[in-house]
Fold this protein.
Amino acid sequence: MPKLGMEPIRRAALIDAAIAEIGQAGSLDITVSQIARRAGVSSGLAHHYFGNKEQLLLAAMRHVLSDYSLEVRRGLKAAKTPVERLNAIVHGGFAPSNFRTDTVSAWLNFYVLALSSPEAKRLHRIYARRLRSNLIHALRPMADSRAAEIADRAAALIDGFYLNYGLAPELPDGVVATKIVMAAVLRDIADS
Amino acid sequence: MPKLGMEPIRRAALIDAAIAEIGQAGSLDITVSQIARRAGVSSGLAHHYFGNKEQLLLAAMRHVLSDYSLEVRRGLKAAKTPVERLNAIVHGGFAPSNFRTDTVSAWLNFYVLALSSPEAKRLHRIYARRLRSNLIHALRPMADSRAAEIADRAAALIDGFYLNYGLAPELPDGVVATKIVMAAVLRDIADS
Amino acid sequence: MPKLGMEPIRRAALIDAAIAEIGQAGSLDITVSQIARRAGVSSGLAHHYFGNKEQLLLAAMRHVLSDYSLEVRRGLKAAKTPVERLNAIVHGGFAPSNFRTDTVSAWLNFYVLALSSPEAKRLHRIYARRLRSNLIHALRPMADSRAAEIADRAAALIDGFYLNYGLAPELPDGVVATKIVMAAVLRDIADS
Amino acid sequence: MPKLGMEPIRRAALIDAAIAEIGQAGSLDITVSQIARRAGVSSGLAHHYFGNKEQLLLAAMRHVLSDYSLEVRRGLKAAKTPVERLNAIVHGGFAPSNFRTDTVSAWLNFYVLALSSPEAKRLHRIYARRLRSNLIHALRPMADSRAAEIADRAAALIDGFYLNYGLAPELPDGVVATKIVMAAVLRDIADS
DNA sequence: AATGAATGAGTTTTCATTCAT
DNA sequence: GATGAATGAAAACTCATTCAT
């Protein structure tokens, strides 16, 4: 079975398994063995590639964040008008690729992990800053000096909806959520 | 040393200790012994009173939620106008009694606990529904048929700000947060 | 079964068990469970009282050293002449209480542990310095300025015999070893 | 890259690496991977050549002993008088080639390994017997019937100094150690 | 000849939980 | 009512060893 170049494949499989496992358990209280089993490898291998459980979890968090980033960047690239740019950012977190119960559940857990893990905190900070700066940048042409203020409100709204989705998936789906947030932000802008 | 009527005192001490410990650790990964030590009792006693760790944590969650409820109800009682009622609800979560890093950190952890613990989920549901119905009730006189829609947005905004406070306590304090949310909601209402 | 004041009893039992286990295995590669089993307790209790395996091992090393110290001090107290004092020191390590295969084997292992564990090194240093200063002090009246030099040689001789005993217990027993060392030292002194 | 005749080269590299690694760690608790890494090969290769870890360690022990033997034999060949022969033996263990912290540390570890590994014990016995018979042989012309007794004392003295050097390398270097032992032995002989 | 991949058994460690007193 | 003692199951982690290539 041993083949060359398995490392990236195993790492990816373990990260995916970790996210799925966290999503399903709704908690970080999962064992490395569970993750490994789901990834189809031994627990030893997980340690071999990630050193310890925390690193594996952090790699999973990084993965979720980078998926999100990717989605936003893709949207921004296609956007032509300021409103489209705004929409791309808002829609990023609610896009089908990220807005699945598994991912949302994992994301919420990572969110809270940032309270106790310095590295998770760092990663969260990066996410929060990027979201804010993306929003401000998109809002500038439309709201000028009020861009920052509106961006903060928009960010809170996004996080709030995201949060709730994790706990009440029957609530607004991604499309609806995007619409609601967009409407609020646009009204914010329109407000002289 | 055993005295009569110690039960409520011990229970309260253990619950307070649990919240403080969770707040400080930023995680539910704390030991019963830590909690008991902080409460000045043996870990055996914690089990004596709460049966097991989960029940102790849930009692702590209930306590946080009931403190919040209390705050809101007190505000509502004093409120005279619809706007004051609205303000009381929004301000509830940001009031000094709840808006301390410890409490917020514990709250976020309970939030996520709701993903894996049915009872925590039930408690969270109660909170979410009460917040929503409170908001709708307060908004009805001002927004009529749009009350529900505005309430949802307000709830998301509140949660979003609350969430961020846990991770970036340097951000808006309670007073400012209340103002921002109120402003947004009032603008929402004003919008025909 | 749980009684009050068990801690010192359990600690002693675990330390004794550790020494016996090391002695029997001839190596520090023994498990905490083995030690605990021999002491008649669970492995959890060993950790409860000592924190981790290293601390338990170090406690055992301390115990061996303190037994040795005790023996020497007892001998010194009873000694009246310089030669008797010298004999007490030399005899200390070869006394029946310390000179059993178990203890010697444990001692050799601790000796080597000092190469990798700073705390073990510290303990060994204390032993080595005490032995040297005891010897010098006892030799001074008899050898004056040559006391230090003779002491060093005596110490090496003692260690050398001790060492060999661990690997070839059929060799000189404690009484004989003491005699040989004493004879060598006395000749050293007599030498103008 | 596989070449012909690599076996002896790899074996030697692995043995050297093992000694260096033991010396540096001060313990036999090193991993095969560490040794292999230092030798610049994979851990699989170490097993390929030595079968298992124990065999590799024993090979390293054999190497240390054979280096020592070599040194002594070289010295004996050049020696002309009984005293020179004696000196060659004593000096053997303290010669620069063996008397380096790495080697001494490895040696002490092998010494203790002999307590638990039959093969290591066998090797140690060979060393001890050879040392004793070399000493006796060299002492015979000078001490006749007391040769054995003096040899035993000399051996203990050598081991004692060697031992201490491992733990306190600031102490006498090889030249001084040789002189001290030689002086003691010669005095022993002179003593009627 | 040599390796990277992979395993799985074994060990330490943690901790909720139980219980005699 | 309260505790200290004790357990044992579960988890992380390590590492010698195997093996396909």
Notes: Residues 31-33, 43-44, 47, 52-53 of chain B lie near DNA strand E (CB under 10 Å from a C1').
